[in-house]
Amino acid sequence: MGQRAAVVGAGHSRFGAVPEGPRALLRTALEGALASVDRGLDRRTIERGYLATLGFGGWQIGNASAVVAEELRCPGLPTVRIENACASGGFAVQEAARAIGSGAADLAIVAGLEKMTDVSSARRRYWLGVSGDTEWERQAGLTFAGVYGLIASQYLARYRVPPEALAAVAVKAHENGALNPNAHFQKRISREQAAAGPKVADPLGLYDCCPVSDGAAAVLLASEATARRYTDTPVFVDGAGASSDFLAVQERPDLLGFAASRRAAAAAYRAAGCRPADVSLVEAHDCFTIAELLALEDLGLAPPGAAGAMTLAGATRRDGALPVNPDGGLKAKGHPIGATGVSQIYEIFQQLRGHAGPRQVPNARRAVAHNVGGAGATAAVTILSVG
Amino acid sequence: MGQRAAVVGAGHSRFGAVPEGPRALLRTALEGALASVDRGLDRRTIERGYLATLGFGGWQIGNASAVVAEELRCPGLPTVRIENACASGGFAVQEAARAIGSGAADLAIVAGLEKMTDVSSARRRYWLGVSGDTEWERQAGLTFAGVYGLIASQYLARYRVPPEALAAVAVKAHENGALNPNAHFQKRISREQAAAGPKVADPLGLYDCCPVSDGAAAVLLASEATARRYTDTPVFVDGAGASSDFLAVQERPDLLGFAASRRAAAAAYRAAGCRPADVSLVEAHDCFTIAELLALEDLGLAPPGAAGAMTLAGATRRDGALPVNPDGGLKAKGHPIGATGVSQIYEIFQQLRGHAGPRQVPNARRAVAHNVGGAGATAAVTILSVG
């Protein structure tokens, strides 16, 4: 796509039930991204701003992108809000990469934000629920935990996968979250604890579900020539793919796997000129433990039904053959809707540059970010690599 | 910006208080855009979809972009929602143009939609109000009519403009709307009627305010090479500019004129390589009559304070020196938030190709579309021309 885009900076707030409001969270992520640029960057050279958010804490619901210019102290910066539910961040990064690809900008910033814990429980359910099909599923009472519970039941039955595979995803997520100072959950759990959580939507229990989190993340993208002025180790966007599907899960031919993820992945691999076997790090959309298993299969990283065994064998741990979600994932790091897809790129930026500290995975050169909206009605897959 | 984008098709629903729901409105606009392509177009060749909407009728609030793929009957089409309040449509068109510019797509569709009349009055106010500054202005009771009333008071006083100038904008809008079968208001009004409307926010009366409308519009954009396969008269996107400003009006140094519009216009003229004097048709964001006067000045088409006299002299009528809003504008055609910016491009597509029927303006070759979010916190200006 035109000139190649690269990530040159990334910032991240603490994820969790934190006291900060939306503006402060956004500021932390934006300033963090600016401060992270190796050779410094004058904020006035940023040409476009993107804001990924579903509800902005139920506060500045319309026209919220203008807040990015305010909090960045860049009056007049062209800004736009991108919303594709939980995939807002992934789509916003792709829009920014295309703006750079088109030559319309040499430097763009993408921020993702959600403030979810200081609103009423009813409003929280509303902001979460609105991204599922409204006519036939949400208003009939089908929650996201419900959808993923149905998927998990069928997955375990069809492929004869033991429920321990789900627990293994949770244990690995918490192991990684414990090493991430920005994670919502920073403590390890045992497989027994994970399996013994109170049921939420059978077979999914408490430890199979990502939390409701506040948080923000931001990344700075530049054209290749501009990127090299700011750093010797830009992280290149090699390929972007996206797709959609019926909002209502009942309209899809099969529950196991998301066609949108599969199509987005195929497009991303094609654009990047690589294959699943070339991937050495994965940021997968694990809103529920079952979702991580599906993601690995949809991304072509495991054959159908094989992701459970792969996880049980430890392949997806930080020191495994294919580390998945070394930051703790949505499951342990947390899932502030609009921030999630941007946070995935933040983690890839740290990992591919070898700056991930105690949670660093060895030898990662090429990573895939997989961000899903709702129960798979939209999906964005982005492939990145380091020089 | 990379390869040049061109409009090759456009569709439009009726605007107004119409019985159709969001899906039907969207379908009308999408199918209209497809049907309008001179040499026909296989919908399966569309590579990206954009949805501009603020509230989707309060129904599919999250992840709504997937509905575009459903209603277009293009399963899997990558779709994304763009929301910048009343400027959502203008920004969505610009995102699509950049996707084409980057080479990521050769054919993209942009739909704008709002369903506003079959929701409760409280919810309607909410969906309208949310785009103003929440912390300091909306929650203190400042409505959009209030903001524009303050602006109008100051405008009339500072420039010694007679209130008849506002009425003249309304009369001209209704004259044009009367010739537009899709307009919300299709009847003429006299200057006396316009001036005698009940006061809404002094000096603005009923006839100074755009209505609350349902509606949808869609445009098809293609790369230049692809466009020429579909039509002999593509309408080219010559330049796109955008900007932002403080959400709170009280933080801006001056009420008269929107800095975001001025900066967006400067960027668009620069990108298009033309000057205001080269423009022969304007689609201006006239959510209130005063807004059209401000727009003409912000776009460099009238000196500060001179747009009133220009309007009173008839220059902005269909047969005037510079026709403005020949479709009736937001004021008479209606203002279904997300649809408005797309509808502006629809009108320019018809006018520049000479297909506008009874409301056709003579000799239009280059047009500017001006789309404002909230009370000027975001703005998108797009310049288009025909062969």
Offer a few descriptive terms.
Peroxisomal Thiolase, Chain A, domain 1, 9-stranded mixed sheet, 37% helix, 387 residues, homodimer, 18% strand, two-stranded antiparallel ribbon
Please provide a written account of the structure.
The structure is a homodimer of 387-residue chains. With 387 residues, chain A is α/β, with parallel strands linked by helices. Chain A folds into 2 domains: 139 residues, 3-Layer(aba) Sandwich (Peroxisomal Thiolase, Chain A, domain 1), CATH 3.40.47.10; 230 residues, Thiolase/Chalcone synthase (Peroxisomal Thiolase, Chain A, domain 1, 3-Layer(aba) Sandwich). Helices cover 37% and strands 18% of the residues of chain A. Chain A has 15 helices and 11 strands. In chain A, strand 10 and strand 11 form a beta hairpin. In chain A, helix 4 packs across helix 15 and helix 8 packs across helix 12. Strand 3 of chain A pairs antiparallel with strand 3 of chain B.
